[in-house]
From TrEMBL:
Pfam families: zf-C3HC4_3. Keywords: Coiled coil, Metal-binding, Zinc, Zinc-finger. One of its GO terms (biological process) is protein ubiquitination. SMART domains: RING. This is RING-type domain-containing protein. Gene3D superfamilies: Zinc/RING finger domain, C3HC4 (zinc finger) (3.30.40.10). InterPro entries: MDM2_MDM4_MUL1, Znf_RING, Znf_RING/FYVE/PHD. One of its GO terms (molecular function) is zinc ion binding. It comes from the Eukaryota. Residues 214-255 form the RING-type domain. Residues 180-207 form a coiled coil.
Length: 266
């Protein structure tokens, strides 16, 4: 509490610099449990007794409330399920990712919330009736697409479990360096193809008094290249006229479908 205002922060954060202001009243927070802070938002949890689906809502500007998480334990008959509300919840979140991974104490599955879209991913459920794995008691961390959890075994012992997450759960995106590298490769291929076309056109022109002509007007020099076949068959004027009525869908030389086109300067 500072200057009459409430603040929240993670245990590992600076309580002054990294604290988030709780911009709602004490009445609005009644019955809510603080799970932690992520990306400038205080994450709270609320569990009701009704069997409504998991949901998420915003309070004020800086507060997110997660509600109604259930333990879906598969019985020996995989069609039957035992659904129980959970009131003890653990959360794993880092500011580097919009994803929040949540599990109840001794639950059979965990939930993943995307705080950018405010939607839950499909929950991941452990197959309890087949392999009898430990129940999840704590999420230790997520790194390189692997999640590590602490589990409680049937005999009361502890087990450390690590498993790969589906790509949709990791939130991985291509880095800027990877994107730039792919763009550079595409540009290099286009430059090579254009240079090859220029060489071929010069050779054809030198072997003919008039040089190549547009296959449509039979007059102007062709300068539109088609992809992926890389044929130069029409002039810019005829290409624009044909494109207006969609009559030029295939290359006049090889009849392959035209995916892209570009003007080439010879």
């Amino acid at each position: 509490m500072r200057n009459g205002k409430q603040f929240a922060s993670n245990l590992w954060d600076d309580p002054v610099r990294d604290a988030v202001e709780i911009d709602v009243s004490e009445r609005d927070l009644n019955g809510l449990k603080l799970l932690g802070v992520q990306r400038g938002k205080a994450i709270f949890f609320s569990q009701t007794e009704c069997l409504s689906p998991p949901s998420v809502r915003k309070l004020g500007v800086n507060v997110i409330v997660i509600e109604n998480l259930f333990d879906k334990k598969l019985d020996r008959n995989p069609v039957e399920k035992v659904v129980m509300p959970t009131k003890k919840v653990v959360m794993y979140a880092r500011d580097s990712s919009p994803l929040i991974h949540i599990s109840g104490f001794c639950m059979w599955q965990f939930y993943t919330l995307d705080t950018e879209t405010m939607n839950f991913r499909e929950e991941l459920i452990f197959n309890a009736w087949k392999h009898r794995p430990p129940r999840v008691s704590h999420i230790c961390g997520v790194r390189n697409g692997q999640i590590t959890v602490m589990g409680t075994t049937w005999t009361g012992g502890r087990a450390l479990i690590s498993a790969p997450l589906p790509i949709a759960w990791t939130g991985k995106k291509k880095s800027g360096a990877q994107k730039n590298s792919e763009k550079d490769k595409i540009i290099e291929e286009l430059v090579d193809n254009v240079e090859k076309l220029q060489s071929e056109m010069k050779e054809k022109t030198s072997n003919s008094l008039e040089g190549p002509s547009c296959v449509i007007c039979l007059d102007r020099v062709p300068n539109i290249v088609f992809f992926d076949c890389m044929h130069v068959a029409v002039c810019e004027e005829c290409f624009k006229a044909a494109s207006r009525n969609s009559s030029l869908n295939n290359c006049p030389n090889c009849r392959k479908s035209i995916k892209k086109s570009s003007k080439v300067f010879f």
